[in-house]
From TrEMBL:
Coiled coil regions in record: none
Protein name per the record: Molybdopterin molybdenumtransferase
Region described as Disordered: 1-91
CDD domains per UniProt: MoeA
PANTHER family: GEPHYRIN (PTHR10192:SF5), MOLYBDOPTERIN BIOSYNTHESIS PROTEIN (PTHR10192)
Membrane spanning residue stretches: none
UniProt entry keywords in alphabetical sequence: Magnesium, Metal-binding, Molybdenum, Molybdenum cofactor biosynthesis, Transferase
Biased composition (Low complexity): 72-90
Amino acid sequence: MTGRDSQSAAAPGNEQPPGPSAGAAPPDTGDLDGVDEALALVGPRPDDGTGPAADPVPPTGGGPGPHRRRAAAWPAARARAGQAGHAAVPRTRRVPLDEALGQVLAEPLAALCDLPSFDTSAMDGWAVAGPGPWTLRGDGSILAGHGDSGPLPDGTAVRIATGARIPPETTAVIRSEHARVDAAAQQLHADREVTPGQDIRPRGQECRTGDRLLPALAVVTPPVLGLAAAAGYDELLTFARPRVEILVLGDELLASSLPHDGLIRDALGPMIGPWLRALGAEVLATRRLGDDAEALHRAVTTSEADVVVTTGGTAAGPVDHVHPVLRKAGAELLVDQVAVRPGHPMLLARLATGKYLVGLPGNPLAAVSGLLTLAEPLLRGLAGRPAPAPYSAPVKDEVHGHPHDTRLVPVVHRDDQLVPLHYNGPAMLRGTAAADGLAVVPPGGARAGDELEVLDLPWATLAPWTPSDTGRCFT
Ligand SMILES: Nc1nc2c(c(=O)[nH]1)N[C@H]1C(S)=C(S)[C@@H](COP(=O)(O)OP(=O)(O)OC[C@H]3O[C@@H](n4cnc5c(N)ncnc54)[C@H](O)[C@@H]3O)O[C@H]1N2
Ligand code: MOO
Protein backbone atom coordinates (compact mmCIF):
# COMPACT_ATOMS: atom_id res chain seq x y z
CA MET A 1 0.00 0.00 0.00
CA THR A 2 1.33 3.42 -0.91
CA GLY A 3 1.34 6.45 1.35
CA ARG A 4 -1.31 8.02 -0.80
CA ASP A 5 -3.47 4.93 -0.59
CA SER A 6 -3.19 4.78 3.14
CA GLN A 7 -4.08 8.45 3.42
CA SER A 8 -7.18 8.04 1.39
CA ALA A 9 -8.16 5.04 3.52
CA ALA A 10 -7.53 7.16 6.58
CA ALA A 11 -9.93 9.92 5.70
CA PRO A 12 -12.64 9.86 8.37
CA GLY A 13 -15.91 9.00 6.67
CA ASN A 14 -19.11 10.43 8.03
CA GLU A 15 -20.60 6.97 8.25
CA GLN A 16 -18.26 6.00 11.09
CA PRO A 17 -19.44 5.30 14.60
CA PRO A 18 -17.68 7.73 16.89
CA GLY A 19 -14.66 7.03 19.05
CA PRO A 20 -11.14 5.73 19.09
CA SER A 21 -11.81 2.48 17.28
CA ALA A 22 -13.95 3.91 14.52
CA GLY A 23 -13.11 3.15 10.91
CA ALA A 24 -10.86 6.12 10.34
CA ALA A 25 -7.13 5.41 10.30
CA PRO A 26 -4.75 6.68 12.95
CA PRO A 27 -3.13 10.05 12.29
CA ASP A 28 -0.10 10.01 10.05
CA THR A 29 2.78 9.39 12.44
CA GLY A 30 5.36 9.61 9.70
CA ASP A 31 7.72 7.16 11.38
CA LEU A 32 5.76 3.95 10.81
CA ASP A 33 7.14 1.55 8.29
CA GLY A 34 3.61 1.05 7.03
CA VAL A 35 3.05 -2.31 8.62
CA ASP A 36 1.44 -1.29 11.89
CA GLU A 37 -0.48 1.28 9.97
CA ALA A 38 -1.67 -1.26 7.47
CA LEU A 39 -2.52 -3.71 10.19
CA ALA A 40 -4.09 -0.78 11.88
CA LEU A 41 -3.93 -1.68 15.53
CA VAL A 42 -6.17 0.58 17.49
CA GLY A 43 -4.70 2.29 20.48
CA PRO A 44 -5.61 5.49 22.16
CA ARG A 45 -5.30 8.27 19.62
CA PRO A 46 -5.61 12.01 19.68
CA ASP A 47 -9.01 13.53 19.21
CA ASP A 48 -9.50 13.83 15.47
CA GLY A 49 -12.97 15.22 15.58
CA THR A 50 -14.74 11.88 15.22
CA GLY A 51 -15.16 11.50 18.98
CA PRO A 52 -18.29 10.68 20.89
CA ALA A 53 -19.89 14.08 20.48
CA ALA A 54 -20.42 13.43 16.77
CA ASP A 55 -22.78 10.58 15.93
CA PRO A 56 -23.34 10.88 12.24
CA VAL A 57 -24.94 7.44 12.04
CA PRO A 58 -28.70 7.70 12.19
CA PRO A 59 -30.05 5.32 14.85
CA THR A 60 -31.18 2.58 12.47
CA GLY A 61 -32.41 2.11 8.97
CA GLY A 62 -31.56 5.63 7.90
CA GLY A 63 -33.57 7.37 10.57
CA PRO A 64 -35.87 7.06 13.52
CA GLY A 65 -39.43 5.80 13.31
CA PRO A 66 -40.56 2.62 11.58
CA HIS A 67 -37.01 1.46 10.75
CA ARG A 68 -35.95 1.50 14.39
CA ARG A 69 -39.05 -0.41 15.48
CA ARG A 70 -38.42 -3.05 12.80
CA ALA A 71 -34.81 -3.78 13.72
CA ALA A 72 -34.27 -6.93 15.80
CA ALA A 73 -31.78 -6.82 18.66
CA TRP A 74 -28.52 -8.51 17.59
CA PRO A 75 -28.76 -11.52 19.95
CA ALA A 76 -32.43 -12.03 19.04
CA ALA A 77 -31.63 -11.91 15.32
CA ARG A 78 -28.92 -14.56 15.73
CA ALA A 79 -31.24 -16.74 17.78
CA ARG A 80 -34.00 -16.42 15.17
CA ALA A 81 -31.61 -17.42 12.38
CA GLY A 82 -30.45 -20.44 14.39
CA GLN A 83 -34.04 -21.48 15.10
CA ALA A 84 -34.92 -21.17 11.41
CA GLY A 85 -32.05 -23.51 10.55
CA HIS A 86 -32.94 -26.06 13.21
CA ALA A 87 -36.61 -25.98 12.14
CA ALA A 88 -35.75 -27.38 8.70
CA VAL A 89 -35.58 -31.17 8.34
CA PRO A 90 -31.89 -31.85 7.75
CA ARG A 91 -30.88 -33.99 4.80
CA THR A 92 -28.59 -36.91 5.62
CA ARG A 93 -26.03 -38.56 3.37
CA ARG A 94 -23.67 -41.47 3.60
CA VAL A 95 -20.29 -40.09 2.56
CA PRO A 96 -16.84 -41.62 2.19
CA LEU A 97 -14.54 -40.72 5.07
CA ASP A 98 -12.50 -38.30 2.97
CA GLU A 99 -15.62 -36.20 2.29
CA ALA A 100 -16.91 -36.15 5.85
CA LEU A 101 -14.51 -33.70 7.47
CA GLY A 102 -16.33 -30.83 9.19
CA GLN A 103 -19.75 -32.45 8.83
CA VAL A 104 -21.94 -33.58 11.69
CA LEU A 105 -22.71 -37.22 12.51
CA ALA A 106 -26.37 -38.03 11.88
CA GLU A 107 -26.14 -41.21 13.98
CA PRO A 108 -23.91 -42.31 16.86
CA LEU A 109 -20.58 -43.78 15.89
CA ALA A 110 -20.75 -47.37 17.15
CA ALA A 111 -17.68 -49.58 16.92
CA LEU A 112 -17.91 -52.11 14.08
CA CYS A 113 -15.16 -54.22 15.64
CA ASP A 114 -13.25 -54.69 18.89
CA LEU A 115 -10.29 -52.33 19.30
CA PRO A 116 -7.71 -53.71 19.30
CA SER A 117 -9.31 -56.46 17.29
CA PHE A 118 -6.76 -59.02 18.58
CA ASP A 119 -4.32 -59.21 21.50
CA THR A 120 -1.48 -56.99 20.32
CA SER A 121 2.13 -56.47 21.30
CA ALA A 122 2.63 -52.91 22.57
CA MET A 123 6.42 -53.11 22.13
CA ASP A 124 9.18 -54.56 19.99
CA GLY A 125 10.66 -57.43 22.00
CA TRP A 126 9.88 -61.00 22.96
CA ALA A 127 6.63 -62.83 23.54
CA VAL A 128 7.20 -65.31 26.35
CA ALA A 129 5.12 -68.10 27.87
CA GLY A 130 5.47 -69.01 31.55
CA PRO A 131 8.47 -68.27 33.79
CA GLY A 132 11.97 -67.76 32.31
CA PRO A 133 14.53 -68.34 31.17
CA TRP A 134 12.90 -69.17 27.86
CA THR A 135 14.01 -71.32 24.98
CA LEU A 136 13.99 -69.35 21.73
CA ARG A 137 11.51 -70.53 19.17
CA GLY A 138 13.51 -70.84 16.03
CA ASP A 139 10.93 -69.68 13.49
CA GLY A 140 11.87 -66.02 13.10
CA SER A 141 9.88 -62.98 14.20
CA ILE A 142 6.16 -62.32 14.42
CA LEU A 143 5.51 -59.06 12.58
CA ALA A 144 2.57 -56.66 12.48
CA GLY A 145 0.12 -57.76 9.82
CA HIS A 146 0.96 -61.44 10.09
CA GLY A 147 -1.78 -64.03 10.63
CA ASP A 148 -2.02 -66.61 13.41
CA SER A 149 1.44 -67.89 14.30
CA GLY A 150 0.32 -70.81 16.47
CA PRO A 151 0.44 -71.17 20.28
CA LEU A 152 3.61 -70.46 22.24
CA PRO A 153 4.57 -73.49 24.35
CA ASP A 154 5.33 -72.92 28.04
CA GLY A 155 8.98 -71.96 28.59
CA THR A 156 9.53 -70.57 25.08
CA ALA A 157 10.02 -67.09 23.61
CA VAL A 158 9.65 -65.64 20.13
CA ARG A 159 10.68 -62.26 18.71
CA ILE A 160 7.69 -59.98 18.22
CA ALA A 161 7.15 -56.52 16.72
CA THR A 162 4.92 -53.71 17.98
CA GLY A 163 1.41 -54.21 16.59
CA ALA A 164 1.88 -57.95 15.90
CA ARG A 165 -0.68 -60.53 17.05
CA ILE A 166 0.20 -62.12 20.36
CA PRO A 167 0.45 -65.91 19.96
CA PRO A 168 -2.01 -67.91 22.10
CA GLU A 169 -0.61 -68.96 25.53
CA THR A 170 1.72 -65.90 25.67
CA THR A 171 1.93 -64.56 29.23
CA ALA A 172 3.94 -61.36 28.67
CA VAL A 173 5.97 -59.28 26.25
CA ILE A 174 9.49 -58.29 27.28
CA ARG A 175 10.90 -55.19 25.57
CA SER A 176 14.07 -55.90 23.57
CA GLU A 177 16.06 -53.55 25.83
CA HIS A 178 15.00 -55.49 28.94
CA ALA A 179 16.21 -58.95 27.88
CA ARG A 180 19.46 -60.71 26.93
CA VAL A 181 19.92 -63.59 24.51
CA ASP A 182 22.33 -66.35 25.41
CA ALA A 183 23.16 -67.31 21.83
CA ALA A 184 25.07 -70.47 22.76
CA ALA A 185 22.20 -71.84 24.83
CA GLN A 186 19.56 -70.34 22.56
CA GLN A 187 17.90 -68.91 25.66
CA LEU A 188 16.34 -65.59 26.64
CA HIS A 189 16.92 -64.03 30.08
CA ALA A 190 14.91 -61.12 31.47
CA ASP A 191 16.85 -58.25 33.06
CA ARG A 192 13.99 -57.36 35.38
CA GLU A 193 10.92 -58.87 36.89
CA VAL A 194 8.27 -59.88 34.37
CA THR A 195 4.65 -59.09 35.23
CA PRO A 196 1.99 -61.28 33.61
CA GLY A 197 0.26 -59.39 30.78
CA GLN A 198 2.91 -56.69 30.54
CA ASP A 199 3.09 -54.83 27.23
CA ILE A 200 0.16 -56.78 25.82
CA ARG A 201 -2.81 -54.72 24.61
CA PRO A 202 -5.71 -57.07 25.11
CA ARG A 203 -8.41 -57.38 22.45
CA GLY A 204 -11.25 -54.91 23.15
CA GLN A 205 -9.15 -52.74 25.48
CA GLU A 206 -10.41 -49.54 23.80
CA CYS A 207 -13.87 -50.75 22.78
CA ARG A 208 -16.02 -53.78 22.07
CA THR A 209 -18.07 -54.19 18.89
CA GLY A 210 -21.19 -52.07 19.26
CA ASP A 211 -19.77 -49.71 21.90
CA ARG A 212 -20.85 -46.09 21.29
CA LEU A 213 -17.69 -44.16 20.54
CA LEU A 214 -19.31 -40.80 19.82
CA PRO A 215 -22.87 -39.47 19.96
CA ALA A 216 -24.91 -38.24 17.00
CA LEU A 217 -24.24 -34.52 16.33
CA ALA A 218 -20.51 -34.87 16.99
CA VAL A 219 -18.51 -32.84 14.48
CA VAL A 220 -16.27 -34.92 12.23
CA THR A 221 -12.75 -33.76 12.99
CA PRO A 222 -9.50 -35.37 11.80
CA PRO A 223 -9.28 -37.60 14.93
CA VAL A 224 -12.91 -38.64 14.42
CA LEU A 225 -11.97 -39.73 10.89
CA GLY A 226 -9.07 -41.72 12.31
CA LEU A 227 -11.22 -43.31 15.01
CA ALA A 228 -13.97 -44.17 12.50
CA ALA A 229 -11.44 -45.82 10.19
CA ALA A 230 -9.86 -47.76 13.06
CA ALA A 231 -13.31 -48.93 14.12
CA GLY A 232 -14.07 -50.29 10.66
CA TYR A 233 -15.95 -47.50 8.85
CA ASP A 234 -15.60 -46.72 5.13
CA GLU A 235 -18.47 -44.21 5.13
CA LEU A 236 -20.25 -42.05 7.67
CA LEU A 237 -23.88 -40.99 7.88
CA THR A 238 -23.76 -37.21 8.19
CA PHE A 239 -26.07 -34.27 7.82
CA ALA A 240 -25.59 -32.96 4.30
CA ARG A 241 -23.89 -29.62 3.89
CA PRO A 242 -26.50 -26.94 3.26
CA ARG A 243 -26.40 -25.91 -0.42
CA VAL A 244 -25.94 -22.20 -0.96
CA GLU A 245 -26.20 -20.00 -4.03
CA ILE A 246 -24.73 -16.51 -3.92
CA LEU A 247 -26.26 -13.69 -5.95
CA VAL A 248 -24.05 -10.60 -6.16
CA LEU A 249 -26.08 -7.51 -7.00
CA GLY A 250 -24.85 -4.17 -8.32
CA ASP A 251 -24.27 -2.70 -11.80
CA GLU A 252 -21.23 -0.87 -10.46
CA LEU A 253 -19.19 -4.04 -9.92
CA LEU A 254 -16.18 -5.17 -11.93
CA ALA A 255 -14.98 -8.77 -11.88
CA SER A 256 -11.39 -7.85 -12.74
CA SER A 257 -8.86 -5.07 -13.23
CA LEU A 258 -8.77 -1.65 -11.63
CA PRO A 259 -11.70 0.53 -10.64
CA HIS A 260 -12.57 3.18 -13.23
CA ASP A 261 -15.35 5.59 -14.18
CA GLY A 262 -17.33 5.05 -10.97
CA LEU A 263 -17.08 1.28 -11.26
CA ILE A 264 -15.49 -0.67 -8.39
CA ARG A 265 -14.17 -4.18 -7.93
CA ASP A 266 -16.58 -6.77 -6.57
CA ALA A 267 -15.13 -7.55 -3.14
CA LEU A 268 -17.94 -9.87 -2.09
CA GLY A 269 -18.03 -12.37 -4.94
CA PRO A 270 -14.52 -13.62 -4.13
CA MET A 271 -15.13 -13.53 -0.36
CA ILE A 272 -18.59 -14.84 0.45
CA GLY A 273 -18.34 -18.28 -1.21
CA PRO A 274 -15.09 -19.29 0.52
CA TRP A 275 -16.37 -17.88 3.81
CA LEU A 276 -19.58 -19.90 3.54
CA ARG A 277 -17.58 -23.00 2.67
CA ALA A 278 -15.52 -22.41 5.82
CA LEU A 279 -18.84 -22.32 7.68
CA GLY A 280 -19.72 -25.77 6.32
CA ALA A 281 -21.84 -24.90 3.28
CA GLU A 282 -21.67 -26.39 -0.20
CA VAL A 283 -21.55 -23.44 -2.58
CA LEU A 284 -23.44 -24.24 -5.78
CA ALA A 285 -22.61 -21.00 -7.58
CA THR A 286 -21.73 -17.35 -7.22
CA ARG A 287 -23.54 -15.29 -9.87
CA ARG A 288 -23.36 -11.57 -10.64
CA LEU A 289 -26.81 -10.28 -11.55
CA GLY A 290 -26.26 -6.53 -11.69
CA ASP A 291 -29.23 -4.44 -10.60
CA ASP A 292 -31.86 -6.36 -12.55
CA ALA A 293 -35.05 -6.98 -10.58
CA GLU A 294 -36.39 -9.49 -13.09
CA ALA A 295 -33.19 -11.53 -13.06
CA LEU A 296 -33.13 -11.44 -9.26
CA HIS A 297 -36.75 -12.64 -9.03
CA ARG A 298 -36.03 -15.46 -11.47
CA ALA A 299 -32.86 -16.47 -9.64
CA VAL A 300 -34.50 -16.41 -6.21
CA THR A 301 -37.61 -18.35 -7.22
CA THR A 302 -35.80 -21.02 -9.25
CA SER A 303 -32.73 -21.60 -7.11
CA GLU A 304 -31.93 -25.21 -6.20
CA ALA A 305 -30.12 -24.09 -3.07
CA ASP A 306 -31.25 -24.50 0.52
CA VAL A 307 -30.11 -20.93 1.15
CA VAL A 308 -29.86 -18.06 -1.32
CA VAL A 309 -27.43 -15.36 -0.18
CA THR A 310 -27.71 -11.98 -1.87
CA THR A 311 -25.24 -9.13 -1.52
CA GLY A 312 -26.29 -5.49 -1.87
CA GLY A 313 -29.68 -4.08 -2.69
CA THR A 314 -31.09 -4.46 0.84
CA ALA A 315 -31.67 -0.76 1.50
CA ALA A 316 -34.25 1.56 -0.03
CA GLY A 317 -32.25 3.11 -2.88
CA PRO A 318 -33.54 3.40 -6.43
CA VAL A 319 -32.04 0.07 -7.52
CA ASP A 320 -32.30 -1.82 -4.21
CA HIS A 321 -34.49 -4.66 -5.41
CA VAL A 322 -34.26 -7.23 -2.60
CA HIS A 323 -37.35 -6.18 -0.62
CA PRO A 324 -39.63 -5.71 -3.64
CA VAL A 325 -38.50 -9.04 -5.12
CA LEU A 326 -39.13 -10.85 -1.83
CA ARG A 327 -42.60 -9.30 -1.66
CA LYS A 328 -43.35 -10.36 -5.23
CA ALA A 329 -42.04 -13.87 -4.49
CA GLY A 330 -44.35 -14.22 -1.49
CA ALA A 331 -41.47 -14.58 0.97
CA GLU A 332 -41.87 -14.16 4.71
CA LEU A 333 -39.40 -11.82 6.39
CA LEU A 334 -38.10 -13.50 9.56
CA VAL A 335 -35.57 -10.76 10.31
CA ASP A 336 -35.79 -7.37 8.63
CA GLN A 337 -32.97 -5.12 9.85
CA VAL A 338 -30.86 -5.80 12.90
CA ALA A 339 -29.70 -3.32 15.54
CA VAL A 340 -26.06 -3.91 14.68
CA ARG A 341 -23.34 -1.73 13.12
CA PRO A 342 -22.28 -2.20 10.47
CA GLY A 343 -24.83 -4.19 8.58
CA HIS A 344 -28.17 -3.10 9.99
CA PRO A 345 -30.13 -3.50 6.69
CA MET A 346 -29.42 -7.28 6.70
CA LEU A 347 -32.41 -9.58 6.44
CA LEU A 348 -33.50 -13.20 6.62
CA ALA A 349 -36.53 -14.46 4.71
CA ARG A 350 -38.29 -17.79 4.25
CA LEU A 351 -39.15 -18.24 0.59
CA ALA A 352 -42.45 -19.68 -0.61
CA THR A 353 -40.54 -22.90 -1.34
CA GLY A 354 -39.57 -23.20 2.33
CA LYS A 355 -35.94 -22.38 1.50
CA TYR A 356 -34.19 -19.40 3.01
CA LEU A 357 -32.72 -16.15 1.75
CA VAL A 358 -30.12 -14.14 3.61
CA GLY A 359 -29.82 -10.57 2.32
CA LEU A 360 -26.38 -9.18 3.08
CA PRO A 361 -25.90 -5.42 2.78
CA GLY A 362 -23.58 -4.29 0.01
CA ASN A 363 -20.97 -2.50 2.10
CA PRO A 364 -18.30 -5.19 2.51
CA LEU A 365 -17.92 -5.16 6.31
CA ALA A 366 -21.69 -4.86 6.62
CA ALA A 367 -21.88 -8.04 4.52
CA VAL A 368 -19.44 -9.77 6.92
CA SER A 369 -21.62 -8.65 9.79
CA GLY A 370 -24.68 -10.18 8.10
CA LEU A 371 -22.73 -13.35 7.40
CA LEU A 372 -21.87 -13.82 11.07
CA THR A 373 -25.19 -12.58 12.44
CA LEU A 374 -27.62 -14.45 10.18
CA ALA A 375 -25.91 -16.83 7.74
CA GLU A 376 -23.66 -18.55 10.28
CA PRO A 377 -26.39 -19.54 12.78
CA LEU A 378 -28.78 -20.46 9.95
CA LEU A 379 -26.22 -22.74 8.29
CA ARG A 380 -25.25 -24.21 11.63
CA GLY A 381 -28.88 -25.11 12.26
CA LEU A 382 -29.34 -26.54 8.77
CA ALA A 383 -26.21 -28.67 9.19
CA GLY A 384 -27.39 -29.92 12.58
CA ARG A 385 -24.40 -28.41 14.31
CA PRO A 386 -24.82 -27.22 17.91
CA ALA A 387 -23.98 -23.62 18.79
CA PRO A 388 -20.48 -23.21 20.22
CA ALA A 389 -20.41 -21.95 23.79
CA PRO A 390 -20.01 -18.18 23.65
CA TYR A 391 -16.76 -16.91 25.05
CA SER A 392 -15.42 -13.53 25.97
CA ALA A 393 -12.07 -11.90 26.59
CA PRO A 394 -10.95 -8.56 27.97
CA VAL A 395 -10.51 -5.78 25.44
CA LYS A 396 -7.21 -3.94 25.56
CA ASP A 397 -8.42 -0.51 24.56
CA GLU A 398 -11.57 1.48 24.95
CA VAL A 399 -14.03 0.87 22.12
CA HIS A 400 -16.73 3.41 21.56
CA GLY A 401 -20.16 2.03 20.99
CA HIS A 402 -23.20 2.96 19.02
CA PRO A 403 -25.78 4.60 21.26
CA HIS A 404 -28.47 1.98 20.54
CA ASP A 405 -26.98 -0.80 18.47
CA THR A 406 -24.44 -3.57 18.95
CA ARG A 407 -21.16 -3.04 17.09
CA LEU A 408 -19.03 -5.80 15.57
CA VAL A 409 -15.40 -4.74 15.57
CA PRO A 410 -12.49 -6.68 14.06
CA VAL A 411 -9.93 -7.70 16.70
CA VAL A 412 -6.77 -9.72 17.12
CA HIS A 413 -6.04 -11.83 20.19
CA ARG A 414 -2.79 -10.79 21.77
CA ASP A 415 -1.57 -11.79 25.27
CA ASP A 416 -5.05 -12.98 26.28
CA GLN A 417 -6.54 -9.65 25.30
CA LEU A 418 -8.54 -8.43 22.35
CA VAL A 419 -6.87 -5.66 20.41
CA PRO A 420 -9.43 -3.74 18.33
CA LEU A 421 -8.35 -2.88 14.82
CA HIS A 422 -8.76 0.27 12.79
CA TYR A 423 -10.20 0.30 9.28
CA ASN A 424 -13.44 -1.13 10.60
CA GLY A 425 -15.76 1.16 8.65
CA PRO A 426 -18.72 -0.45 6.83
CA ALA A 427 -17.06 -0.20 3.42
CA MET A 428 -13.66 -1.48 4.61
CA LEU A 429 -12.18 -4.96 4.81
CA ARG A 430 -8.68 -3.89 5.76
CA GLY A 431 -9.17 -4.34 9.51
CA THR A 432 -11.01 -7.65 9.08
CA ALA A 433 -8.32 -9.04 6.79
CA ALA A 434 -5.85 -8.64 9.68
CA ALA A 435 -8.30 -9.91 12.32
CA ASP A 436 -8.85 -13.30 13.91
CA GLY A 437 -12.23 -12.43 15.40
CA LEU A 438 -14.97 -9.85 15.67
CA ALA A 439 -15.69 -8.43 19.11
CA VAL A 440 -19.30 -7.83 20.05
CA VAL A 441 -19.45 -4.32 21.49
CA PRO A 442 -22.68 -3.62 23.36
CA PRO A 443 -24.60 -0.38 22.89
CA GLY A 444 -22.75 2.35 24.74
CA GLY A 445 -19.31 0.81 24.11
CA ALA A 446 -16.66 -0.84 26.25
CA ARG A 447 -13.88 0.40 28.49
CA ALA A 448 -10.37 -1.01 28.46
CA GLY A 449 -10.45 -4.30 30.41
CA ASP A 450 -14.16 -4.99 29.81
CA GLU A 451 -14.97 -8.54 28.74
CA LEU A 452 -16.39 -8.72 25.23
CA GLU A 453 -17.95 -11.69 23.48
CA VAL A 454 -15.85 -12.77 20.49
CA LEU A 455 -16.93 -14.35 17.24
CA ASP A 456 -13.87 -16.27 16.10
CA LEU A 457 -13.19 -16.21 12.39
CA PRO A 458 -13.13 -19.76 10.98
CA TRP A 459 -9.46 -19.57 9.98
CA ALA A 460 -8.30 -17.95 13.26
CA THR A 461 -6.06 -20.88 14.14
CA LEU A 462 -4.53 -20.98 10.65
CA ALA A 463 -3.17 -17.42 10.58
CA PRO A 464 0.53 -17.70 9.73
CA TRP A 465 1.35 -14.29 11.19
CA THR A 466 0.04 -11.90 13.76
CA PRO A 467 0.13 -8.13 13.68
CA SER A 468 3.14 -8.20 16.02
CA ASP A 469 5.07 -9.81 13.17
CA THR A 470 6.35 -6.50 11.93
CA GLY A 471 9.30 -8.07 10.15
CA ARG A 472 7.15 -9.03 7.19
CA CYS A 473 6.38 -6.78 4.32
CA PHE A 474 2.72 -5.92 3.98
CA THR A 475 2.15 -4.76 0.46
N1 LIG B 1 -30.92 6.57 3.12
C1 LIG B 1 -30.19 5.55 3.60
N2 LIG B 1 -29.24 5.04 2.84
C2 LIG B 1 -28.52 4.03 3.31
C3 LIG B 1 -28.73 3.52 4.61
C4 LIG B 1 -29.74 4.09 5.37
O1 LIG B 1 -29.97 3.70 6.52
N3 LIG B 1 -30.46 5.10 4.83
N4 LIG B 1 -27.94 2.52 5.06
C5 LIG B 1 -26.64 2.44 4.49
C6 LIG B 1 -26.05 1.23 4.94
S1 LIG B 1 -25.67 1.22 6.57
C7 LIG B 1 -25.75 0.23 4.11
S2 LIG B 1 -24.88 -1.12 4.70
C8 LIG B 1 -26.11 0.23 2.74
C9 LIG B 1 -26.81 -1.06 2.40
O2 LIG B 1 -27.22 -0.94 1.14
P1 LIG B 1 -27.49 -2.11 0.16
O3 LIG B 1 -27.50 -3.42 0.81
O4 LIG B 1 -28.69 -1.70 -0.60
O5 LIG B 1 -26.19 -2.10 -0.72
P2 LIG B 1 -25.86 -1.30 -2.03
O6 LIG B 1 -26.58 0.01 -2.01
O7 LIG B 1 -26.09 -2.17 -3.16
O8 LIG B 1 -24.35 -1.07 -1.80
C10 LIG B 1 -23.87 -0.33 -0.72
C11 LIG B 1 -22.40 0.00 -0.96
O9 LIG B 1 -21.67 -1.20 -1.05
C12 LIG B 1 -21.00 -1.28 -2.32
N5 LIG B 1 -21.05 -2.66 -2.76
C13 LIG B 1 -22.15 -3.37 -3.07
N6 LIG B 1 -21.82 -4.59 -3.47
C14 LIG B 1 -20.49 -4.66 -3.42
C15 LIG B 1 -19.54 -5.67 -3.73
N7 LIG B 1 -19.93 -6.87 -4.18
N8 LIG B 1 -18.24 -5.40 -3.58
C16 LIG B 1 -17.83 -4.16 -3.15
N9 LIG B 1 -18.68 -3.18 -2.81
C17 LIG B 1 -19.99 -3.42 -2.97
C18 LIG B 1 -21.81 -0.39 -3.23
O10 LIG B 1 -21.07 0.03 -4.34
C19 LIG B 1 -22.19 0.72 -2.28
O11 LIG B 1 -21.10 1.59 -2.11
O12 LIG B 1 -26.99 1.27 2.43
C20 LIG B 1 -26.61 2.52 2.99
N10 LIG B 1 -27.52 3.50 2.51
O1 MOO C 1 -23.69 0.58 8.61
MO1 MOO C 1 -24.14 -0.15 6.98
O2 MOO C 1 -24.94 -1.39 7.70
O3 MOO C 1 -22.94 0.54 6.09
O4 MOO C 1 -22.75 -0.98 7.04
